[in-house]
Amino acid sequence: MPNLNLTALFRPEILAMSAYHVADAHNLIKLDAMENPYGWPADIQQAWLEHLKDCPMNRYPDPEAKALSEALRASNNIPAESGLLLGNGSDEIIQILQMALPGNATVMAPEPGFVMYKQIALSLGLRYQGVPLLADGFELDLPAMLAAIESSQPSLIFLAYPNNPTGNLFDAGAIREILAVAPGLVVVDEAYAPFADASFLGELPNYPNLLVMRTVSKLGLAGLRLGFLAGDNAILEQLHKVRLPYNINCLTQITAHFALTHQHFLLAQTRNICQQRGEILAALQDMAGIESYPSAANFILLRTLAHAADEVFISLKNQGVLIKNLSPQGGVLHNCLRVTIGKQEENRAFLAALRNALQNP
Ligand code: PMP
Question: Class assignment of domain 58-260?
Answer without folding.
Answer: alpha beta
